[in-house]
Please model this.
Amino acid sequence: MRERAAAAAMGRRSSTGAWWRLVVFTLIVSCAAVRHAGAEQTAAVASAHPLATAAGHAVLERGGNAFDAAIAVAAALAVVEPYSSGLGGGGFFLLHRAADSAQVMVDARETAPGAVAMSQYFDRDGRPIPGATVRGGTAAAIPGLPAALVHLEQRYGKLPLAVTLAPAIRLAREGFQVDSRYAQIAKMRESFLQSGVNTEVFLDRGRAPQTGYRLRQPALAATLERIARSGAAGFYEGPVAAAMVDAVNRAGGAWRAADLTGYKVIEREPVRFEYRGATITAAALPSAGGIALAQSLAMLEGFALERVGEPATDHLIVEALRRAFHDRARYLADPDFVRVPVARLVSRDYARSRAASITATKASRSDALGVVPDGLPKAESRNTTHLSIVDSAGNRVAATVTINLLFGSGVVPAGTGVLLNNEMDDFTLRADVPNAFMLKGGLANRIEPRKRPLSSMTPAFVEDDKGVLVLGAPGGSRIVSQVLLATLEYLRAPDVDLARLVAMPRYHHQYWPDHVEVEPQGFSAEWRAAMSAKGHEVVVANRRWGNMQAVFKAKRGGAAQAASDPRGAGVAGY
Ligand code: DON
Model:
């Protein structure tokens, strides 16, 4: 509507002829020149792919706000990073509206289908059916991302979906050249894609494409156009919905049309807490992320910390993570299904009682904290994506979105271009069965009809005297430790060095397995020896993890900057 009104106004002006057009063109060119000449910017976009970041810029330049830009970036990521996120997945959008300082988390987490049955996941002898939660129709939960895009437009945006989805539609229809990251991931998943349902769309004549291959997704373009035209009905009703139900059920799942028409995003109060004078806002349940961050920081507040990277501090951080992940396994799940004592878990009293068993000199043992169920870890795989945006008015979005593992369930319903998620793997099948992220959980997070699986995604805002940091990352359970380390470092340093924050070497502990996992680079032999001397088992991972996207807006002057993790292919923009 608004756009049509603006277009109409432009139309009236056009009678004054070419002169106006020249003036407007000159203004646009000179504004762009100023921007590229390095003038201080007050808006910033960071995402995992330069084409998605560009989509965000384009929408901001058309007068959109951070929420419009988030729609454009999330939709573009669905096209250019199909292995990470997309219309067939879900996520969490943490929003801050400058006009009234309202903060909300749009919960677009997928839901278990209404007819889900445990017999889909266990054989007659009670053994978990290999792959049932990660591949095919039984792996896919009802997608939430399209509903989130529509909700953002209706409730928070200034521009119509026809404008905000346009960059994604163009990228899907005209294609884009795949980067080396795409080529590598497709190679890694080549046989999975060769044997999936309509997943050959991601290949070049049946093989993983080379860098530079132009990937076109016309069916996905058509689905995005339906959403632009008809809103949620373009996805959750009509031919796209029918194709999804059909494909999932042929691939062993049990979806019904009502699962799709009944899908709704939920606006939830984010987790908000103070840490040494800073205010932190982060994802609420059904993500465990905000609670784990709040618990870890509340425990750490009782100690004098030096800096991340010093073994004395890192030991304490590991101990805090160990306890936060223990509670995650014991208590956390979809709050609409299970009573979770959130207020107590994030309280200072509780933190004090949990931190009482932390000593500066010696690692605790996870099994001494409570029951550790048996079971063997499965192999793991990582993907998901994050975007961070601030606009010049001060609106903010931190959104982490996912289809879970690389290329999700491997099911693309015919004619839709939509790759369905395998988020069912984020449920707990049984206490002794870890998921792909080696997370074990309690039965609070067991599969139930229409329930949302517990997540680790931790979009967050960190506000202090310097300004506000908007951040998040992919990485499954390792998301929480990434956000924790970056938050601690941001708060410690007097100046803001975003590039360093997103690049910092990472370590992680998640209660079980009881070891500190460290990235292969960035931890010296002395560091490892110091941690081992305290009793930690240090395991060096064979590769780095995460793909953090951060933006910062200064309190004084409102200057904004962005940074993308050097581990990914992202390019942060002004
Ligand atoms: O919601 C979760 O916690 C997972 N589905 C996220 C998966 C993920 O981050 C994979 N990343 N690399």
